[in-house]
Amino acid sequence: MTPSPRWVRPLAAAGSILLLAGCVRLSSVGSSPVPTSDPSVVPVPSVTVPVPTPSPTPRITLAPTPSPTPAPTPTPDDGAQVVEVSLLDTLVIEPTRITVRSGTPVRFVVTNDGGLPHDFFIGTDREQKQRESAEAEPGPDRYIEVPPGETRTLTMTFPEATRTIAGCVVPGHYSAGMRSTVVVREP
Predict the structure, then answer these.
(1) Does the predicted model carry a pTM greater than 0.70?
(2) Is 80 helix (H, G, I), strand (E, B) or coil?
(3) Which residue of 39, 48, 94, 123 sits 20 to 30 Å from the alpha carbon of 6, by its own alpha carbon?
(4) Nearest to 86 by CA among 71, 98, 99
(5) Who contacts 108 (Cβ-Cβ below 8 Å, separation ≥6)?
(6) 3-class secondary structure for 44-74?
(7) Where are the beta strands (DSSP E) in 6-150?
């Protein structure tokens, strides 16, 4: 056997101890230390370190944000007679008869209660037919479009007592009977 230099022996002995101590340490986790015959190896005591369990992340439940309440539309106190009108997909205008006073503003509050497009035009039978067939354009002072589910307002004043018609001039609607008689009386 070849003699080793002096510095190799202490390193070899130290390496064995470190290697052995590492084995003891690894094998001692959660159990008792492994006995060794080497008196220079000190057993490492088993240490239990409590590991905190992560607490569940708190659930944050957001309440639905209420939609803002629309501010009421200011209505001028013009003494207008208010008439509520419904346009239905059964091609009916309710009420079928409307009575108003001449010389007083009339505010028609028209709601399309259906899913079809409708409109509202005040005019004679001849004017209604012309507009339904696109022979003439309805005047903006007597006509409003009312999209499905929406409400529109038309305000007008009838100067004298008369009888006229409120109709829907979407093609095919007026001719199918979608109209209401408007009776204008003296105050």
Answers:
(1) no
(2) coil
(3) 39
(4) 98
(5) 83, 85, 120, 122, 153, 154, 155, 156, 166
(6) CCCCCCCCCCCCCCCCCCCCCCCCCCCCCCC
(7) 81-88, 92-94, 97-101, 105-112, 118-123, 143-146
Measure CA 31 to chain center: 60
Structural element, H or E, at residue 163: strand 162-167
Token duo for residue 83:
């008439």
C-alpha dihedral, 23 to 24 to 29 to 32, nearest 10°: 150
CA–CA dist 36, 42 (Å, integer):
9
Looking at domain 81-185, what is its CATH homologous superfamily? Cupredoxins -  blue copper proteins (2.60.40.420)
Q: Which residues contact 102 (CB under 8 A, 6 or more apart)?
A: 158, 159, 160, 161, 162, 184, 185, 186, 187
Residue ranges per structural domain of the chain:
10-47, 81-185
Q: Which helix (H) or strand (E) holds 14?
A: helix 8-28
